[in-house]
Amino acid sequence: DAKTTQPPSMDCAEGRAANLPCNHSTISGNEYVYWYRQIHSQGPQYIIHGLKNNETNEMASLIITEDRKSSTLILPHATLRDTAVYYCIVSPTGNQFYFGTGTSLTVIP
Amino acid sequence: NAGVTQTPKFQVLKTGQSMTLQCAQDMNHNSMYWYRQDPGMGLRLIYYSASEGTTDKGEVPNGYNVSRLNKREFSLRLESAAPSQTSVYFCASRTGFPNQPQHFGDGTRLSIL
């Protein structure tokens, strides 16, 4: 069973920041938070992951709350190509990934 | 750099037929994974191989077998295909160092009539 809860869908205007929330209230101390996205029916694409510190890379930023019970993926300037299903996953080792149904993000022109 | 390559991309089988899905990675990764994705759902782990020579069951292993042929290749076999196994199958790999992410192939779309 997925250990995370995400809203089923969200819209974002093109050029604006997309903020995708994820609740993981039962996260253990050694579990990392991973974010992936899936465009159409392609293979999931890795975006970013972190343990407790905020992380940033060329694709996105990950903000994890101090109690680690929730996180937010931020796409700073959403484009039409960011329309996808976004998955938030928690895992202690990187082996056992449980995908929920994710958030379907639609970027609107 | 091809990453994770899955073959075939599409396949149609009849109930009871057998088939092997192939997966190869060129990233020198230690760990490899097989998932299935049914319509409208997230991916579910079938089997994984944490390192060459080892395999472990995931969430939905029934009806499948796997072989870690070498470090590069990890195959998934359906011995007697059933309509319930109609799905999209994804292979993934990762380095094997703790907490590193998995990287996915583009999938095999399998229909069983």
Keyphrases for this structure?
heterodimer, A: 109 residues, mainly beta, five-stranded mixed sheet, four-stranded antiparallel sheet, 9 strands, B: 113 residues, seven-stranded mixed sheet
Overview of the molecule:
The complex is a heterodimer of chains A (109) and B (113). With 109 residues, chain A is mainly beta. Chain A contains no helices and nine strands. In chain A, strand 3 and strand 4 (45-50) form a beta hairpin. Chain B has 113 residues and is mostly beta strands. Chain B is built from no helices and eleven strands. In chain B, strands 2, 4, 5, 6, 9, 10 and 11 form a seven-stranded mixed β-sheet that branches. At the A-B interface, strand 4 of A face strand 4, strand 5, strand 9 and strand 10 of B.
Whole-angstrom Rg of chain A: 13 Å
Please tell me the overall pLDDT of chain A: 93
Strand order of the largest sheet of chain A: 1-9-8-3-4
The main sheet of chain B comes to: 7 strands, mixed
Q: What is the 3D form of chain B?
A: globular
Low-pLDDT stretches of chain A are none
Helix share, percent of chain A: under 10%
Beta content of chain B: over 45%
**Main pleated-sheet profile of chain A:** 5 strands, mixed
